[in-house]
Design goal:
Layout lengths: L8 H22 L9 H25 L7 H27 L8 H24 L17 H8 L11 E6 L4 E5 L2 E5 L3 H7 L5 E5 L2 E4 L3 E7 L2 E6 L4 E4 L4 H6 L4
Length: about 250
């Protein structure tokens, strides 16, 4: 069970009381265990007294014992079981005194099951209310810009218009490369293996037998049913093969 949120003590007490009162009014409206036969005013006051008083007992036990139990449902179950005898006794004594009902100890045994059910409900609602939201940690791959000389030799092969453009990806064809840049594609006569050698010091990944991508141009990577796809800057989609996927996985993309 995740740790319960910890607001200021007085706010937590006020919130617990408000929650118990709301649950008491709800039980008064539902009228379980034959209490729907009571007059409305009596029924609402009876259930509010039972839920608030019994809830205080449960909260006290939860604060003392529940914190050591950890798991959510184990904590709720343990606290509900521990509070049941005390709450059943309270239900016999206190609300009974409110309406002049004589104390009859033999009713205690009959009340235990009903009190356990209600106690589990009340403590479950309280635990869910105070449960700390799941912490979501967003991670992002931070890629340092490549050194100018890392791409210099390869960039000299590009046309003058694209030589200084942002490099996005390289796609291998039979005897030439299609170089994708933010200034448009360019065709270069060069073997893919030689291009990889010239870009060995650049920040990028070979993601397929015929594709190389610049690391800082990757926007997202998806992997489904044994096949991957990298979405690049400019809307370009690049296939990611199973054999080359580990390099992207180690970089934190999926």
């Amino acid at each position: 069970m995740k740790p319960l949120a910890q607001p200021a003590p007085w706010r937590r007490v006020a919130s617990d009381v408000a929650l118990l009162v709301a649950l008491g009014l709800f039980m008064g409206a539902v009228g379980p265990f034959g209490s729907d036969a009571m007059p409305s005013a009596t029924r609402y006051s009876y259930w509010t007294a039972c839920i608030v008083g019994g809830g205080v007992i449960g909260v006290a036990i939860d604060e003392i014992v529940g914190l050591r139990l950890g798991a959510f449902w184990r904590r709720v179950a343990a606290v509900s079981l521990l509070m049941t005898p005390l709450v059943a006794l309270y239900v016999l004594v206190v609300p009974g005194q409110m309406y002049g009902t004589p104390f009859e100890a033999w009713h205690l045994r009959d009340l235990l099951w009903q009190v356990l059910v209600i106690s589990a409900l009340v403590m479950s609602v309280r635990a869910l209310v105070w449960r700390r939201p799941r912490t979501v940690v967003e991670t992002r791959v931070v890629v340092a810009p490549p050194l100018p000389e890392a791409e210099a030799a390869f960039r000299r092969r590009l046309s003058a218009r694209r030589r200084a453009a942002r490099l996005i990806a390289i796609e291998a064809h039979d005897h030439y490369l299609r170089v994708h840049t933010d200034a448009g594609p360019d065709l270069v006569t060069l073997r893919f293996a030689d291009a990889l050698a010239e870009l060995a010091g650049a920040h990028g990944f070979q993601v397929h037998r015929s594709w190389w991508v610049a690391a800082d141009a990757i926007e997202a990577v998806r992997w489904r049913r044994g096949a991957g796809e990298a979405r690049m800057a400019g809307g370009l989609s690049v296939p990611v093969s199973r054999s080359h996927a580990p390099v992207l996985k180690s970089a934190g993309w999926f």
